[in-house]
Write a structure and sequence with these properties.
Helix content is about 65%, strand content about 10%. With about 475 residues, the chain is of the alpha+beta class.
Length: about 475
Amino acid sequence: MRSSKQRIHFSVALTASAIATISLMTGCAGVRTEGEKRARQDQESVGQVYRPGNERPALPKLDTNAPLHDFMLFAMLNQPRVEAAYFDWAASVRRITVERSLPDPRLTFQSDIADMVMTLMPGLMMDFPGPGKLKAAANVATAESETRYFQFESAVLQTAFALKKAYYELHFLGAKVSVNHEMLRLVSEIEKLARAQNEVGKVTLQDALRSQMEQERLTTEIANLEDSRNPLLAQFKAALGLKPDDTATPVPQKFESTALDLTSDKLLATALARNPRLKAMESEVRRADASLRLAYKARVPDFNVGLEADVKASPVMFTPQLGVTLPIWRDKIAAQIAAAQAEKGAATARLSSEEIMLAVEFAEKSFMFREAGRTLDLLTERLLPKARQSLEVAQSGYVSGKVDFLNLLDAERTLLEFQLAEVEARVRRELALAELSLLILGTPPAGAPVLSSNAIPGKERKP
């Protein structure tokens, strides 16, 4: 028989061995699922562009001569909203590993004590979820990571659109100011003409006073337009991801339109296939389907296995343990399955609703583009030339006394109205193009930190 001293040494050795076994197991790694591998590859691919080496990449240098593309790239790489969406996606990718991993083993210790220690039983316990449960949980997490990716891509495109919107509005604000300055110069000449007519007794001083009032109105309008530049500059700066105390950024001087061929009859199909909001909804359906499969797994029991050793016994006695959960609460299981089915139904309905709304948005923006184009053609080719001619005729008629001042002023205001309408039509046209390209068709700008169309989550990869 072993001596008491020998048993204690053996107890210490067995305990040390168990601790060593646990330590070794903490360095183990599970087997990655295919979805986890793809998600990590995608995240690493985007990370090489968006956060190489977990650091912010070098941002483009911005000045008034820089192309619009540099400003959009700066915004996409610097916007905090995009950064938050990226890290949400990165966290969801890592959660796949958590969901597909086995629970941690447990080190147990048990002892019987009367007047003295009767038994000393260290042990090791391990839980094993029922067959298929870990894979189903991993599938749920994988679909969730896909949703997070498309939310990140949406944030990238929305940031690019916000920058373009502020850029176009700033550009056309300058055009409005120029139009009003030109009209102010013209009305000033009309005032001189009215004073000359008054001096020779052809008209009263009232005409000159009316022209002065029109000049005051135009001067106030110019001041309002100039003042409206400040909130637009704030929007432009915010789209770039710059803080209020950051140095003001320049605005690109060169005007760049959005290149988009709207004559193709396949654009709506392209939008339905590539729109990130729609792709996020599709991922939600896949997540709900995976959750339903996981809910059905609630019927499968879980297991736990363990081994304890009584190190005070001679010889040492080993006590194996096996436990099985009993999923007897059928109403609870039925409720889990019903809830998952309802979630899948809701996700499917949201997807259908989003498809309908996307088609409506596509139709609305396409109409807005066509309407603005027709308005531009009408103004530039017919109305503006006639309005200028009408003003020239009114000026000549005023000098000869055939046209009164109110008709002359009306001709000036008509020309101003048409010129401003032309600017507004150009704004609507460019905003419709930008929204169609970025938010509806989901076409990322060159250099955008997103996956290529052949590598988007939830799509079969091309070899």
